[in-house]
Amino acid sequence: MSIDHLMDNITINKGITVRLVIILILFVCSSCAKTEYEKKRDLENKIIGMTWKQLEKEKNLIPLGEGGSVTPGNEYLELIFQYFEPLSIDEARELVVYSAETFLHNLNSDEKLGELLDKPYPMKWIRIQIFIYNPDYSDIKPPNISVANYEKDYIVYLADDGKDFETIYKETYAEALEKLKK
């Protein structure tokens, strides 16, 4: 084997190796950069955690879960809580409205998140669910409230008979705000 032939093989292998290294670097770098959606999602998750801690401390609401959708026309962010004390409709209303307002405020006041948005989050994108139990963790029996739910401009208060949920009372968010002003 001549030196020239050996040098040609090294040059070809070097070229392939260099190309592979460049492709690998580009792949790694592209996976390191977060998309705008990922940045927004990460900030929303941070705010969800912060809001959970705040509402647990201020209102004794125990975080249970969260949800959300980015489907156009059905966007929402949801916080789900447990509360271990029976509530009247007036007390449940106050907790739901306070939770929704606090969550919305926390989302819209975050500067980094605001930079990624075209407009502030609207209240219609907020969902709050509070599952209510007795202090001994037993279920609340009808006709008392076992779930208070805010979704799409309505607050619904439900009783759970063990088989089905029954609506006890339903009001718009605007009606709830009016009642809280009194």
Secondary structure topology:
Layout: H1 3-32, H2 36-59, E1 62-69, E2 76-83, H3 89-108, H4 111-115, E3 126-132, E4 147-151, E5 154-160, E6 165-172, H5 173-181
Parallel strand pairs: 2-3
Antiparallel strand pairs: 1-2, 3-4, 4-5, 5-6
Helix pairs in contact: 2-3, 3-5
Structural class: alpha+beta
The H/E string reads HHEEHHEEEEH
Shape: elongated
Q: What order do the strands of the largest sheet run in, or round the barrel if closed?
A: 1-2-3-4-5-6
What average pLDDT do the residues reach? 86
How many separate structural domains?
2
Low-confidence stretches: none
Total strands: the figure is: 6
For the sheet with most strands, the description reads: 6 strands, mixed
**How large, in whole angstroms, is the Cα Rg?**
26 Å
Explain what the structure shows.
It is a single chain. This protein has helices at residues 3-32, 36-59, 89-108, 111-115, 173-181; strands spanning 62-69, 76-83, 126-132, 147-151, 154-160, 165-172. It has 182 residues and is of the alpha+beta class. It folds into two domains: 1-33; 36-181, no CATH class. The chain has a six-stranded mixed sheet with strand order 1-2-3-4-5-6. Helix 2 (36-59) runs antiparallel to helix 3 and helix 3 crosses helix 5 (173-181). The mean pLDDT is 86.
